[in-house]
Design brief:
With 134 residues, this protein is an alpha+beta fold. Helices cover 20% and strands 38% of the residues. The protein has one domain: 2,3-Dihydroxybiphenyl 1,2-Dioxygenase, domain 1 (Roll), CATH 3.10.180. The N and C termini lie close together (11 Å).
Length: 134
Amino acid sequence: MLGRLNHVALAVPDLAAAIAAYRNTLGAELTEPQALSEHGVTVVFVNVGNTKIELLEPLGEGSPIAAFLAKNPSGGMHHLCYEVDDILAARDQLKAAGARVLGDGNPKIGAHGKPVLFLHPKDFFGTLIELEQS
Ligand code: CO
C-alpha cells in the first residue's frame, strides 16, 4: 500500500521567517506560498531532491495546526505524507484494520491538487500520517 515519502511537514509560527531561514540560511529552493483555506493553512514546499519539506502556517480561525503550535510555540514536525496508488482502497483497508481516518473519512484535495486523507497519530506511534494519491 505504502509508496514513497512525498513530504515531511513542519508547523511554523511565522512562515516568512521560515521561508527566510530555508532560502537564505539553508540555501534551499522554495515554492511560492499557497493559501489552502479548506485545510486552514498556508503552505510552502522546500525541494530537497529525494523528498520535500512542507512548511505550514495557520490560516484563519480554527486552523487544525493552531493547537499543535500552542503546544510547540517555536514550531515542530507535524506530519509525514506517504503516497498511495489508490486512496479509497487504502482508506478501506486501513479502516478494516482498525485505523482511524480523520474528518468525515472522505479525501480532500491537498496542496498538490490530489486527494489526501489523514490518519490518527495515536494509531501510528504518535505521528500524524497524510496519505496522498500518487
Ligand atoms: Co502535508
